[in-house]
Amino acid sequence: MSVEQGNLSVNTENIFPIIKKFLYSDHEIFLRELVANAVDATQKLKHLSSSSDFDKTATSEVGELKVKVAFDKEAKTITVSDNGIGMNADDIKKYINQIAFSGAAEFVEKYKDAPNNKQIIGHFGLGFYSAFMVSSKVEIISRAFSAKEEEAVHWECEGSTSFELEATTKAERGTDIILHVAEDSEEFLESFRLKGILDKYAKFLPIPIEFEGEQINDPNPLWTKSPSELTDEDYLAFYKKLYPMGEDPLFWIHLNVDYPFELTGILYFPKVKQELTASKDKIQLYSRQVFITDEVKEIVPEFLTLLHGVIDSPDIPLNVSRSYLQADGNVKRISSYITKKVADKLQELFKNDREGYEKKWDDIGLFVKFGMITDEKFLEKAEKFALVKNVDGKCFTFDEYNEKIAANQTDKDGKKVWLYAADVQKQHTFISSAQKRGYDVLVMDSMIDSHLIQRLEGKLENVSIRRIDSDTADKIIAKDEVLEAVLSEADQTKVKEIFEKIVTANHTVEVQAMPTDEMPVTLTLSEFMRRMKEMAMSGGGGMYGMDLPDQYNVIVNGNNALIQKILDTTDEATQLQLAQQAYDLSLLSQNLLEGKALSSFVERSLNFIK
């Protein structure tokens, strides 16, 4: 074969979007693409060896298939070798010289009825050209599976549209891709750098990958196996392989579907703490065992990104760099399927082991709540297994809780009122007052409970959810009964005027008839304003509400003996001192008194005792 020279045939229709997107955003992708191509070549040979097209007399036995990655720091080369199907001159002209012509796509179409043909990874025919992102020159030395040693070919290109193609010799079947690394990419001529890239992208490729004399991958990862042959220990060990520093997961789901799309994987439920963002981006997306990304929010609903594990599907459409997902019908179907499987798993755990499920609730509750807030379909299913927990530590489903409180916590308009505390310690006084009336109080103290409350009030019929300190115990659940007032209207007006002189300017004062054993002064915060501030602080509703001051309602218990004592005192200074004392006690009971205000309270108390 004489030396042939020519120009690369560029299909502008196909190359234009690649130019527009700069092919790949991360240069390290070159190694993933070349190794994936090498794996393709071995897979093609494996499939072809069982077909009538395979000439068993023209080549050696298939033998052990593998891919090798090597580098020479002095020569400034990186070599990716395989002993797969190989190429002859015509193959190189067709698959290399014509940019964006996918050999893998053509091969799959030709052998579409062969078993496991979707193991062929390539799709766009552009992966090879990622080599030029880090190389000043690229060589190919290849011998086709049916060729003799002297029929091998050598191709060379220096990153332009010009190439050289000539005959050479090669003892073994397969292909060597030799990269002459450019000066600005010499970072890739380090063992740790190449090993890191291979660990990231090639850890579970289906053909052994050898680097520096060692196999660095597991060709048969757990998600490719049948759940029936796996133990709990297998799943936990695989989790440790994925997340060496992570706590053991609570439980897991093994995904395996082949119609109407192909999807395998394992999703683990970690212990979800208060920091939602710290738990995200832990699901790894693979396509035919090639790692693609750990940003899967376009495949699964946002709340499912709190899970950990692996999803592998050849039916998730990718753009040419395989770095960004392209939404289509399959993505939506896959997303719906995963959501359903997660909901079904939670329902199964709740139904089969209620006690065990309740013990796990503190670790999975935030995940379930996040799903209910962000995904309507999940919300509908979650109503069967979502729990609320009261201050006594008892758990209830929504229906169970409505039944529990129906007799005592239904207001005059027929609405069942759920009372909750966001901070049991700070709101202890309010909880005690409510419990004196036989009311039950829930604990809703997670960072997203304010959003969940809004969602539930719109979903649950005839239910109102109110924080325990949003009003006094007698008014928080509006009843027809009215407690008789000890003070006359004139006295109530006088008491109000006294307290208005000592409270903070943005606080409002109201005198109410309350039981005599209740606090002389109680501070409540408007339910509406509090929700606005909470949602703003947790990232909802923009920034509106962030800068609004806390507008507390100062509720003076007109039936408390201390209030009567204030009225009976003729000295105005003493009246104000007693009122201040009662007001400070209320602040102190709700942990609202601190710093300078607390020091002043102590000083006033000591002076009052003297």
- The CATH architecture designation of the largest domain is 2-Layer Sandwich
User: What's the rounded overall pLDDT mean?
Assistant: 82
DSSP helix count?
19
CA-based gyration radius: 35 Å
Fourth-tier CATH superfamily name of the largest domain? Histidine kinase-like ATPase, C-terminal domain
State the secondary-structure class: alpha/beta
Domains, number: 4
**CATH fold category name of the largest domain:** Heat Shock Protein 90
The count of strands amounts to 24
Give an account of the 3D structure.
- Helix content is 36%, strand content 19%.
- It is of the alpha/beta class.
- The protein has four domains: 4-215, Heat Shock Protein 90, CATH 3.30.565; 222-352, 2-Layer Sandwich (Ribosomal Protein S5, domain 2); 388-476, 3-Layer(aba) Sandwich (Rossmann fold); 489-525 and 546-609, Heat shock protein 90, C-terminal domain (Four Helix Bundle (Hemerythrin (Met), subunit A)).
- It has a nine-stranded mixed β-sheet with strand order 1-8-7-6-9-4-3-10-11.
- It is elongated.
- Residues 12-22, 100-105, 114-125, 320-326 and 541-546 have low confidence and may be disordered.
In short:
This protein has 610 residues and is α/β, with parallel strands linked by helices. 36% of the residues lie in helices and 19% in strands.
